[in-house]
Amino acid sequence: xxxxxxxxxxxxxxxxxxxxxxxxxxxxxxxxxxxxxxxxxxxxxxxxxxxxxxxxxxxxxxxxxxxxxxxxxxxxxxxxxxxxxxxxxxxxxxxxxxxxxxxxxxxxxxxxxxxxxxxxxxxxxxxxxxxxxxxxxxxxxxxxxxxxxxxxxxxxxxxxxxxxxxxxxxxxxxxxxxxxxxxxxxxxxxxxxxxxxxxxxxxxxxxxxxxxxxxxxxxxxxxxxxxxxxxxxxxxxxxxxxxxxxxxxxxxxxxxxxxxxxxxxxxxxxxxxxxxxxxxxxxxxxxxxxxxxxxxxxxxxxxxxxxxxxxxxxxxxxxxxxxxxxxxxxxxxxxxxxxxxxxxxxxxxxxxxxxxxxxxxxxxxxxxxxxxxxxxx
Length: 377
Prior knowledge:
By secondary structure, the chain is α/β, with parallel strands linked by helices. The chain has three domains: 6-113, 2-Layer Sandwich (Nucleotidyltransferase, domain 5), CATH 3.30.420.10; 125-216; 222-368, no CATH class. It is built from 13 helices and seven strands. It has helices spanning 39-52, 69-77, 101-113, 125-157, 171-178, 185-216, 222-228, 236-246, 255-261, 286-296, 307-312, 318-340, 345-368, and strands at residues 6-13, 17-23, 31-36, 56-62, 81-85, 266-268, 277-280. It has a five-stranded mixed β-sheet with strand order 3-2-1-4-5. Strands 6-7 form a two-stranded antiparallel sheet.
């Protein structure tokens, strides 16, 4: 704290305007005003805060669709420290029924002064760009799934049943669909349009996969992506998405901290002698949680090192391979131990995903903090 104290500033940021509430040291009432959400106006805001405050200036706003641009522009202007806080962890009074932008800005300033806010860890612009590319690929995968579903449901409504193979995908299914001739011309046009949509989505996903594969071969992603590809169920797209989404393992001092961050730990409501644990909290990064659950399904199979996994492990550190082997043995036993006790498979796989991220932390955290690869803190 400086000699004159700290000035706390809460900001409620929106697309067009930012509501500002400034709490000067020793002043019970805030100074409030509104500025445009434009680079020039933000630079003027930073200068105004620096002139008005006698000492250090600390600002905050909620994480949201505006991203980290406001934080970067304020800190680039100099003299201002800005935090982006997690909206889900902002304290809320149960009886509070009035919500306005002005009240929200003042509330953030008060909570920042009382140290009741939790700041999120901002990625660098380069990390954010790769992260958004990974999310773009995820969107493409979902669009492809929807396009295939539309095609399948249309054929079902027309009584066209695919019985040649077990799965309605692949080259055999594609040739069958393209060979269909429907009675009405309008139906034929609809069928061809759905087929075109599926092919476009497939090409879009393949193009994004190639871009991600190229990025995975470059620094700083080459080493961590190569290590993660040693794990059963994790290949290039999943590996670079995990690295881009988490982007700095130094903020997770323990594997349990990372599990909690991803919302993979059980919720709890205990009081006095009553203890109750529920489903996982589902807090934190939903993208990483989905990737881990998808990868965890692979561990229901018997542990083995196939040709593809052996190829991915070539020239990788032996310590990382040892961690991946322990994970494969441990997680397979864990999945079947839970299912044999009567746990549904979808619950067992979530427990496996929780332990999988612990092995991932063991592989990546030591190198992030400068310890030998494969070591533990």
